[in-house]
Fold:
Amino acid sequence: MERQLLIIGSGPAGLTAAIYAARANLNPLLITGYVVGGQISLTYEVENYPGFPETLTGPQLVELMQKQAERFGTEMAFEQVTAVDLNTEPFTIKTDAKEYQARAVIIATGATPRALEVPGEKEFTGKGVSYCATCDGFFFREKDVVVVGGGDSAVEEGLFLTRFANKVRIIHRRDELRADPILQQRAFNNPKIEFIWDTLVRKISGDGTVQAVETENVKNGKAATLATEGVFVYIGHTPNTQLFVDQLKMDEMGYLVTDQRMHTNIPGVFAAGEVSDHIFRQIVTSAGFGCMAAMEAEKYLASLGDRKA
Ligand code: NAP
Structure:
């Protein structure tokens, strides 16, 4: 069956696009991907989304957005998109279960945590190496862990890990953090957190599970081995745009390129959220971009109707 509007991705951009599109009677189909909610479903606490003065968890916010999208008639498909053809209209979207056709598409596939790409990282993923403190922090009760990175995620998740771990060492490649000053202050005041500055992780080693990281000081070249049972990696993200290579315009980092109205280079295909935004990357901005994409999709679909008449 040909759909009017198909939305790929269920993070704040996709779910907000669905709320707006459903309220405009476009009967959107939203293909969720493997994790409903995307990155926020892996976030322990959300403190900066307007309207929620009491902290709520990422999964709680996802559930509320999903309910709101469904209340107005969004249909959810709990499937993963495997291929798209955006060069021929109607657009074709294949999932692990079905094939869909749509007259307009909003891409909100988000971004994935970046890997360190050092020896031992792949081998010990799930055996001490993690990209999600919310998911795995509990397993590190009374243990020593390291966090790699100096942005909001590294510091926020490092703070979260102090609930469980004995000691949290944050290893950062520079001598100042990129993270928000409020988070920095909390981390500096936390007796369980220690910073290791100007340092890169070169190798993760162990025996079945992680036992140590090998590091290098970038200023004096000194190598060191730190005993640790957990390595939490928070060094930024890579946009999930593999499906669109050779079809949609991307920048040098692989993010989808849109104009100010969320239009990609193909009329009828829109992008919203972290798949096309590497600057703001907040829940509220992704939601805003999702709203804009849905409003533009509505206009585009109306213009198709005008052309037919
Ligand atoms: P980010 O801001 O891009 O920070 C990545 C950190 O990893 C930087 O400190 C960077 O170092 C470091 N890094 C990058 N590549 C590295 C490598 N190969 N080896 C070692 N270190 C490396 O990423 P993020 O912390 O995930 O945050 C992403 C976005 O989400 C940001 O816009 C952030 O504001 C937002 N966010 C907001 C909140 C919140 O508001 N509470 C929470 C989480 C995330 P340099 O500093 O030297 O570049």
